[in-house]
Amino acid sequence: MKKTTSPYRWPAEWEPQSATWIAWPHNLDTWPGHFREIPGSFVKLISAIAAFQPVKVLAGPKDSSPSAQDMLQNVSNVTVYKCLTNDCWIRDYGPTFVHRNLDGKVVGVDWRFNAWGGKYPPYEDDARAAEFICRQLMSARSQSSLYCEGGALETDGEATLLSTSSCLMSRYRNPGWTRDMVEDELKRQLGVTKVIWVDGGGLEGDDTDGHIDQLARFVSPTVVVAATSSDPMDPNRSGLEQNLDILSKKTDAAGRKLTVHALPTPAPRKVDGKRVPESYCNFLFVNGAVLVPTFGSPHTDRAALEILAQLIPDRKIIPVDCRQLIIGLGAVHCATQQEPANRANA
After folding, report:
1. C-alpha to C-alpha distance for 164 and 210, rounded to whole angstroms
2. CA distance 202 to 106
């Protein structure tokens, strides 16, 4: 088989960053009956990130109420951009930033986007956001023909990628694509050389068809945390245990065995009769810290913070209350997209 080559390298999230991008929430349908608390939750999230690095916010429609400008006027280290959006989950439609091997400069990979397999039209403004961001940064943009969301991808920065077939091989995203075709495109755009498919099972209530950033994350080279269930009666339990088993048998792109740590989820919680997909894997690296979602579950919240503190001892572990945010089926990682520093300037 012909080896896929790439001019890029996808840096790990813990590598130096220039900023974090966020899209201001305005879509009432994302949190039906619960939107009132959401802008304030975003202000807290943005403030927590801005204590460590710049935050760049897409303002959304002119009639967004409350507006990003009004709510963020007293938060320092924040820049607001006039850019239309349909929803706030910028991880999935923003560019996936890679480094160009030639000069270390940042390039934005612009995947095709159809709102998680066409679930939530309209999505045309979101689909144009990656181009807008690259234009603001005056960075090159690499357009992909693959329908893909950023939350479906996870890397160690050393050419290993984690993902799920249930998402990228969905017939509502990439009909007609074989696994080899998908892997080749991921390798070409991201510079990875090994793709590990974590196909044990996902989270009940997750509308993404199994985004990896809810299931398994690298915290350092060869070290992975994976969501497991803290409740023996949880419908998620069997699938998550299978994910743990899959990962524990894998090696990375360099042939090193992965070390996998369980990150137990809270007990099942329903809002308005529907399960919300709570997972501590939805954390975010920023310069000097890790922002970790919490869900008002004292035992598992504390355990998750302690596990991540042990595994990432060189950074502050910052809890972020996501009890309201997760009603929209996303948390800290879903609502953000990191902009890595140019390698030449890092």
Report:
1. 7
2. 32
Residue 236 three-state SS? coil
215: tokens are 């299931």
Determine if the peptide bond prior to 66 is cis (ω within 30°).
Answer: yes
The answer to whether 44 and 321 have CB atoms below 8 angstroms apart is yes
Exposure of 256 by Cβ count < 10 A (0-12 exposed, 13-18 middle, 19+ buried)? Answer: middle
Q: What is the DSSP letter of 77?
A: S
The enclosing H or E element of 43 equals helix 38-50
107-150 pLDDT, tens per residue?
Answer: 999 999 999 999 999 999 999 999 999 999 999 999 999 999 99
Distance CA 322, CA 48 (A): 13
Residue 281 burial (CB < 10 Å; 0-12/13-18/19+)? buried
Please, which residues have CB within 8 angstroms of residue 314's CB and are 6 or more apart in sequence?
A: none
**Residues 283, 291: contact at Cβ < 8 Å?**
yes
- Does residue 165 sit in helix, strand or coil? helix
Closest CA to 165 of 148, 189, 145: 148
Average pLDDT, the chain: 97
Residue with tokens 């799920």: 164
Tokens in use for 276?
């919300």
Tell me the C-alpha distance between 289 and 129, whole Å.
27
Percent of the chain with pLDDT over 70: 99
| 334 labelled catalytic | yes
**Looking at 83, 148, 281, 334, which residue is catalytic?**
334
Dist. CA 68–CA 233, nearest whole Å: 42
- For residue 7, the tally of other CB atoms under 10 A from its CB is 14
CATH numeric code, 8-340: 3.75.10.10
**Hey, what are 271's tokens?**
């809002």
Structure tokens at 261: 């740590």
